[in-house]
């Protein structure tokens, strides 16, 4: 578990201009600066925030870990002394040719401390993205905090968040481009994943119009009991909350869901 008692977190709910990397990064960092000025230490962004799902120009939008997005996010996190969670379109040359992944990234104080390739691509994504094959939490060494990262569609899979919780995650984070009109589904799942794992959950969604879909926002910060701490509407905004990390153990002692599991049956 974490070495910290609490942490101030921020979700950057932003609209995305598909395939316009420069514009998106500039906007994201401007919003991040506002969040950092409040003392927020952990900043969370929507899925593939710098490009959107730029399918028609995926070869140009795709990046390596040395690309523009990660470089700029590392520089910001170093300057402001914070951690940041987001995803990019990753491109990688393999023995069979160029492959693409939806790569979740966590940077802390200027360095990439962990990555996660989305393991459950959704519908059209399957035509372009390879699936990751590993679900492992990401450790923030400076903050002594463990992040359980999942991406969009994976909020529908309780197995993903449960595995991340069992492996010692302090906070569950979902980054997404969850489209309209599924706002009630998104909200219900975000709260459920927190309740069933007795873990705080930051669920950060895109807002606005995209090339193929519209996005309702609805980003949310939920505590270990499933109570909503902060929630966004359908516009660009930054929501901020302070998470009590010590509360997890107290709640699990009171309601011993993990101890009472009968894994021999399931």
Automatic annotation (TrEMBL):
Pfam families: CN_hydrolase (PF00795). It comes from the Archaea. PROSITE patterns: CN_HYDROLASE (PS50263). The keyword Hydrolase applies. Keywords: Hydrolase. Residues 7-245 form the CN hydrolase domain. One of its GO terms (molecular function) is hydrolase activity. PANTHER family: DEAMINATED GLUTATHIONE AMIDASE, NITRILASE-RELATED. This is Carbon-nitrogen hydrolase. It comes from Methanolobus vulcani.
């Amino acid at each position: 578990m974490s070495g910290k008692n609490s942490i101030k977190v921020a979700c950057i709910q932003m609209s995305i201009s598909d395939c316009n990397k420069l514009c998106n990064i500039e906007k994201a960092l401007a919003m991040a600066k506002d969040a950092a000025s409040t003392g927020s230490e952990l900043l969370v962004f929507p899925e593939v925030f710098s490009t959107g799902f730029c399918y028609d120009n995926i070869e140009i939008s795709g990046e390596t870990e040395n690309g523009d997005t990660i470089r700029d996010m590392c520089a910001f996190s170093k300057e402001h002394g914070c951690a940041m969670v987001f995803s990019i379109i990753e491109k990688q040359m393999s023995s069979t040719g160029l492959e693409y992944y939806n790569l979740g990234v966590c940077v802390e104080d200027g360095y990439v401390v962990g990555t996660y390739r989305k393991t459950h691509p959704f519908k059209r994504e399957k035509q372009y993205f390879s699936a990751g094959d590993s679900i492992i939490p990401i450790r923030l060494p400076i903050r002594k905090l463990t992040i359980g990262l999942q991406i969009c569609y994976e909020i529908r899979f309780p197995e993903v968040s449960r595995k991340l919780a069992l492996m010692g995650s302090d906070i569950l984070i979902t980054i997404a481009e969850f489209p309209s009109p599924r706002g009630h589904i998104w909200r219900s799942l975000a709260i459920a994943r927190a309740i069933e794992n007795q873990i705080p959950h930051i669920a950060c969604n895109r807002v606005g119009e995209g090339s193929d879909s519209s996005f309702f926002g609805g980003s949310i910060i939920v505590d270990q009991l499933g109570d909503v701490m902060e929630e966004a509407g359908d516009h660009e905004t930054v929501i901020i909350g302070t998470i009590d990390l010590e509360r997890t153990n107290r709640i699990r002692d009171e309601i011993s869901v993990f101890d009472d599991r009968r894994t021999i049956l399931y």
